[in-house]
Every structure is written in C-alpha cells, then in structure tokens.
Design brief:
Nucleotidyltransferase, domain 5, 5-stranded mixed sheet, 11 helices, 16 strands, globular
Length: 325
C-alpha cells in the first residue's frame, strides 16, 4: 500500500511518502504557488528553487517556490485555503513528487478549529479523493483520504520515535504547532483527543515575522517585505542590510517574547475550561517551534517541554504513520 502524508502549509509543503512496510521518504519545499505568468522567469528556466510545472483547471501553475519569486499574485490567506487554486497546485506538486499514478492512502491535516468541523472535513476529503490531472495528460488517482487535526500528526511522530512511548501514552500531552497563518494546539490525554482543550490562534509565524521585521527596520532603517523575511526564516536566517548580512534570529527571538506569550496565555485559558488542567508534556512542532519554547516553559510551568527530530516535518511523518492503519 502506497501512502502519502501531506502537510500543505502557507509557508512550506512537507511530504512523507512510500510503501507501508518501509521508512518513508521525506521532503520539504517552499509553499509558493502561482500561475506561471506571475513567477520569475529565472525560476521557469532552471527550477533552481524547486518549482514544479502543474496544471490547475485550464491554467499552468508553478508550485513549490519561494514567495519572493512571485510578483503580482494575491496570496490566499484564509480558512478557505484548502479549496483554493494555490492549494490545488501544491497538491498536484505533491502527487508529482511521488512519481505514482495511484495513491492508496493520502493523509493530511487541518487547523484544529476546522478539523473539528465535520462538514468542513468531509468537504476536504471529497475534494482530495479521486482522479487529478496534475499536468497535461498526466493523471493521478487518490483512492482514500484521511483528514485529522494537524498537531495530531506531530504527536504520532513523537510517539513512534521517543525512547519510552509508554510514558507518553499514559500522559497528558499538549501539542503546539506554530504555522504561518495559525498556531494550532491540541491536548491528547492518554491517547485520546481532548476537543475542549484544543483550538487555534491567529498569532502565528506571519505575526512573528512582521514584528521581527519592524524591529529590524527600527534598528537598521532598511524596510523588509514579509516574503523576504519568510524566505530567510525558512533558509539560513540571514537577511541583507545595506551590504551586510544580519542574523534574523536575533530579531525573531526579540519578537517571540510578546507573540509567543500571548499564544501560550490563550492555550492556558482554553485548557482551564477542561475538566483536566495542565499537561505532563508540551510537544512543540512546526518550523517555528524553537520560538515558543521559552514561553511554553514559563506559562505552563512544571510541564516538560520537548521537540521531535526535524519538527518542521513532524506532521507529515505522523500522517504517514497514521496511514498505515
């Protein structure tokens, strides 16, 4: 059985795929996608930034590229993102990467507030299932689809890799997944999803990057657009400033203080409504995990704060494991 664990975010496309009985191949691409007329010609010529030429309806798209390579195309940042052409372009890129004509099981995630909406979830399952024309005359069929809350993928991944999974299985684990558009968290109590302690916040990486950019501009006088900061955050964390390279991490750490603490206060407030408060473990996932570590330890005092290996890929790996059944 061939499984594709697919985590399509606003900033990164994360994949884990392969046969059920083998270790999955994992891969990470930028999540930029736009019609080819809006994409830098140098990308079209060389694909040096990982672009894939895909078909969306009757239009040719380039997917899996840096946001800074796109000019004049309005990026979709809304709850309807999974049904946008940008998302479909990234889906087609993901299917193309597998080099398969059939996917037996595709597992993906939604932000918590959407994943607990059964109607929204069923709509996405229907949207992803079936035959997809990913490029001219090239079709891929997705036979079955599962959609789960995104942070659950990170929990499954951690459970499969931790030295003593019995401790994790017997504990109350709070999973926090900072994405570009939203920060998702869910509580898993003895292996059971606790809906009452799970939610999403809009104080996400985009807010963190904007604040870091404001601090950097105040310090240097050099303005930055969000796409440039996003590319740097996904890469070596260095940005050009008047002939020198500045470390964006310094400003992300400064910005993280207020932004991450606001998120953790919202998490704590939500958990107070549950009959079981607090957590034994706080598992941080996603590309921005390190910027929430201090706030998590401060606001959720006493909880053990952990991250898995390569946290940016944690959800995709967990999705793959779930697909095995």
């Amino acid at each position: 059985m061939f499984i594709l664990g697919m985590d399509i975010g606003y900033s990164n496309l994360k994949l884990a795929f392969g046969e059920a009985g083998h270790k999955p191949e994992t891969i990470l691409f930028p999540a930029g996608a736009a019609p080819e007329d809006y994409v830098s010609k140098s990308i079209l010529a060389s694909h040096s930034k990982g672009g894939f030429e895909v078909k969306v309806g009757n239009e040719n798209y380039i997917a899996g590229i840096d946001q800074s390579s796109i000019d004049g195309w309005t990026r979709v940042l809304s709850k309807e993102y999974p049904f946008s052409d940008d998302y479909k372009a990234l889906l087609h890129a993901a299917l193309m990467v597998t080099e398969k004509s059939e996917i037996d099981m595709l597992v993906t995630g939604l932000p918590v507030e959407q994943a607990i909406n059964e109607e929204f979830k069923a709509k996405l399952v229907n949207h992803l299932t079936g035959q997809h024309e990913i490029s001219e005359g090239r079709f891929v069929t997705v036979k079955r689809v599962k959609v789960i809350p995104q942070p659950v993928g990170a929990f499954i991944d951690y459970l499969m890799t931790v030295d003593d999974p019995r401790v994790v299985q017997a504990s109350r684990v709070l999973v926090i997944d900072p994405g570009f558009f939203s920060v998702d968290w869910c509580a898993i109590d003895k292996g059971n999803f606790d809906k009452s302690s799970s939610d999403s916040s809009q104080d996400a990486m985009s807010v963190l990057l904007e604040e870091a950019g404001r601090l950097l501009t105040a310090d240097t006088g050099r303005p930055f657009d969000l796409a440039t900061l996003e590319d740097a955050a996904r890469g070596d964390r260095m940005v050009p400033v008047f002939g020198e390279m500045k470390d964006l991490n310094l400003y992300l750490d400064l910005a993280a203080g207020n932004v991450s603490e606001n998120v953790m206060k919202a998490v704590r407030q939500k958990m107070r409504r549950s009959k079981i408060q607090g957590a034994d473990f706080i598992l941080l996932a996603g590309g921005g995990a390190e910027h929430y570590k201090d706030a998590a330890a401060k606001i959720m005092e006493g909880s053990k704060v952990v991250t898995g290996e390569e946290p940016v890929l944690a959800n995709a790996r967990g999705f793959f494991q779930l697909g095995k059944g």
